[in-house]
Amino acid sequence: MKKVAIAGGGPTGVTIALMLVQRGIAVTLVEAASDFHRVFRGEGLMPSGLDALEEMGLSNILERIPHRQLNAWEFFLDKKSLFRVNEPIELDCQPCTLVSQPPLLEALILEAQKYNHFEFIQGVAVKDLLWINNRVAGMKLADGREIVADLVIGADGRNSVIRQRAGLKLERQPKSMDVLWFKLAASSLFTDENVFTAIGDGENAFAIFHGAEPGKLHLAWTLSGSQNITNNSDKTKIEWAQIFASISPSWLAEHFINYADSIEKPIKLSVVVGICPCWHTPGVLLLGDAAHPMSPIRAQGINVALRDVIVATNYLVPLLLVEEADNKAIDRVLSRIQKEREPEIIRIQQLQEEEGRQNKLFPKNIFLRKLVIRLAHLLSKAIRQSWIQRQHKMRRGVTQVKLEV
Ligand SMILES: Cc1cc2nc3c(=O)[nH]c(=O)nc-3n(C[C@H](O)[C@H](O)[C@H](O)COP(=O)(O)OP(=O)(O)OC[C@H]3O[C@@H](n4cnc5c(N)ncnc54)[C@H](O)[C@@H]3O)c2cc1C
To answer: Are 394 and 352 within 8 A, CB to CB?
Structure first.
């Protein structure tokens, strides 16, 4: 039986592991974190990600774990509502849904553990690659173990060790933002109707919504340009509540002040965006954020990672099931996986960048901002329409992705 070693038990690593073991290929999956709650990743799944889970036969797992649909998106500038769009935006597809990642990953691992040819090593990092005759032949772990495999998959995220050890370059986009991620007590305003609410005043911006788990609002505070994480992370709960309230409409400002005590210490998230010109080298394939770290804008990373997994499964399974398939045949197929996935990744990253630029358009120009607010009742329809049009590809994907094996 052919064997695949996978570094990283995020959405990419866990789903590709499950797809392979279900189809008769031996897998060892290695995850550095000792439990899935230790790594932050967003929760937003777009229709393209939900469809990918369905393609993989995993929708039933979603039903068993905490998830919550978004009811709408609403955008505020200087405390005034610019426009609102209800979910689902397009009637023929599912609404954007928040899915708690730790229970999803745990449930997928349990599924994979039904197969004897699956091994899961948790709480140990992959440190290096194992080379034989100039081809990667496995991974070396921090505890000294060596995993020999016919193929190594680097699914170890944006700072991928596999990528670095394999000498694969990452072309990074210029850094445009970091994020402070807060959680605080839920308000009935969001439990009754979960509206992804984006708020800005030209200087500062944040987004707030009810997360997948009950009882908690999530608040993503964007740090752009000169604002840096260190200067912003030592404020008290009360100071943060006052800052959030100062740019919020009154109904929300009141909640921040009343529930200041519930504001949890933020997680600092350094955003990396880019793509590798080459996702593979003999014996190694990169997938997900390891190959193309995604911006958090409009919740794309998990969705495109799941679609990478479907395409990789289509190419790898028929080959790895052939016991006589040699290493050269495995290596040849890796470039075809990149070739099929790259156009969508490039386009989605462009769309995310464009969306980021739109967000900055008003703040840069005070005159324009005041004008827009004054004319909001006249412009709202046009701004809303243009926003809806821009979302289409980020919700549905750019290319056709179907599981064929
Ligand atoms: C602030 C923020 C919000 C986001 N929100 C969303 C969202 O709402 N929706 C969305 O779709 N995307 C979102 N994203 C993007 C999303 O988190 C990533 O694109 C996605 O998690 C990529 O999945 P992955 O499995 O490739 O990598 P990761 O999720 O990063 O998983 C990589 C795994 O590899 C492990 N690992 C790392 N190094 C090693 C090693 N040496 N050995 C073994 N294991 C290792 C890590 O512990 C981790 O578990 C967001 C990103 C950010 C920064």
So the answer is: yes
